[in-house]
């Protein structure tokens, strides 16, 4: 039986956990990535993006949970997974003493005859001299060599950790456009990024990882359509506004004098009308939220207790003494996931099946009432 079956998701993660000595880097990540998409993983510094990518590429074994990539288990078959995919880490490791040409030749031994030709074509397109030593390349040029290596065996899945960092704007643009072309031919690109505006241009699927948990996942268009920015003017700064009913979920609220700004999921037109009729409300304006605004609303510092954290606080410290140390191929094989916490995100694929919908409108500061959202 072939390792890959085309109807199955190319990446699946179930209840992935990664505990380091001092921190739970991943706390029950469920994810499905379908073929032929550009899937962007967004998250703040330290959210767990690289940890998740290292697990998917077989460089790190999870503490718990399981993953399948191209139909293979990266914890048990790391070499096979890495042969199937193209991967660029956030800090590509290239041998500094090799030339650009030697680097390609060295990697080519693992792949088919077309590898070297594709690699050379890419290096030429990036205007990098083949006889230059890696140690004499700029950061951006090294990133281009790493990308050329990752693409040279024409992988059906490309996994990129911060692919555009170090690239100049012109190269970033053409690189990202080439990712859309790949997806159009049925290949899959899974990338992590901080560059939300860039992601917005290329991704068709998006997930937000926040403190080791997926707090939002879905098709970009649907995510954008599902979150609204409400600006409400009131006659008195202390005026209380009634709760929004279900299915609305208030993600965040800012108060500035007599103006409130709310980010709300699943706002219904009737709710806007009801707000306008409330006593003391002088105006209600309704806008679509940008991906950046949605990202901020879902990753507020105070959102931790609402994103399914069983500790109910911002502390991700691990109780475990099980320090997995640096990324390694050795260690325990993944076991069954921990399904004990009913508040764990149960997002499967590009749809989520659970969220809290208390619809509260908060009257002070920035808080969230949404627990976990997706489309
Ligand atoms: N080998 C390790 N040992 C201990 N802690 C680790 C290890 N690797 C990662 N961590 C911790 O796990 C958390 C997630 O780290 P990770 O590198 O996955 O974040 P990230 O989302 O990729 O961040 P960034 O955007 O800054 O690259 C961080 O708190 C980090 O300190």
UniProtKB/TrEMBL annotation:
Pfam families: ABC_tran. Keywords: ATP-binding, Nodulation, Nucleotide-binding, Transport. GO terms for molecular function: ATP binding; ATP hydrolysis activity. InterPro entries: AAA+_ATPase (IPR003593), ABC_transporter-like_ATP-bd (IPR003439), ABC_transporter-like_CS (IPR017871), ABC_transporter_ATP-binding (IPR050763), P-loop_NTPase (IPR027417). Residues 353-375 have a biased composition (Basic and acidic residues). Residues 343-352 have a biased composition (Polar residues). Residues 301-313 have a biased composition (Low complexity). SMART domains: AAA. Residues 300-375 are annotated as: Disordered. Residues 11-236 form the ABC transporter domain. Belongs to the ABC transporter superfamily. This is Putative ABC transporter ATP-binding protein YbhF. It comes from Stieleria marina. The lineage of its organism: Bacteria, Pseudomonadati, Planctomycetota, Planctomycetia, Pirellulales.
């Amino acid at each position: 039986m072939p390792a890959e079956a085309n109807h199955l998701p190319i990446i699946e993660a179930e209840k992935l956990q990664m505990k380091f000595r001092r921190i739970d880097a991943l706390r029950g990540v469920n994810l499905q990535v379908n073929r032929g998409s550009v899937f962007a993983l967004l998250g703040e510094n330290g959210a767990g993006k690289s940890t998740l990518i290292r697990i998917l590429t077989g460089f790190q074994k999870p503490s718990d949970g399981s993953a399948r990539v191209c139909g293979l288990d990266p914890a048990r078959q790391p070499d096979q997974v890495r042969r199937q995919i193209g991967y660029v880490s956030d800090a590509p490791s290239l041998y500094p003493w090799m030339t650009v040409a030697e680097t390609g030749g060295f990697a080519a031994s693992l792949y088919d005859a077309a590898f070297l030709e594709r690699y050379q074509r890419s290096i030429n397109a990036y205007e990098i001299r083949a006889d230059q030593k890696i140690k004499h390349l700029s950061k951006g040029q090294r990133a281009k060599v790493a990308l050329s290596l990752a693409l040279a065996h024409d992988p059906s899945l490309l996994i990129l950790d911060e692919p555009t960092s170090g690239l100049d704007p012109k190269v970033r643009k053409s690189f990202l456009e080439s990712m859309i072309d790949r997806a159009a031919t049925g290949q899959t690109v899974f990338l992590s990024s901080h560059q939300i505006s860039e992601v917005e241009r290329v991704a068709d699927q998006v997930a937000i990882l926040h403190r080791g948990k997926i707090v939002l996942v879905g098709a970009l268009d649907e995510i954008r359509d599902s979150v609204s920015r409400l600006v409400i003017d009131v006659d008195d700064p202390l005026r209380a506004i009634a709760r929004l009913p279900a299915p609305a979920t208030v993600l965040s609220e800012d108060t500035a004098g007599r103006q409130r700004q709310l980010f709300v999921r699943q706002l219904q037109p009737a709710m806007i009308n009801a707000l306008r009729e409330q006593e003391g409300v002088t105006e209600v304006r309704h806008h679509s939220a940008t991906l950046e605004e949605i990202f901020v609303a879902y990753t507020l510092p105070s959102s931790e207790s609402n994103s399914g954290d069983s500790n109910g606080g911002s502390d991700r410290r691990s109780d475990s003494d099980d320090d997995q140390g640096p990324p390694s191929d050795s260690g325990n094989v993944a076991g069954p996931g921990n399904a004990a916490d009913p508040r764990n995100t149960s997002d499967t694929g590009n749809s989520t099946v659970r969220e809290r919908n208390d619809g509260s409108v908060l009257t002070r500061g920035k808080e969230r009432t949404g627990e976990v959202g997706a489309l």
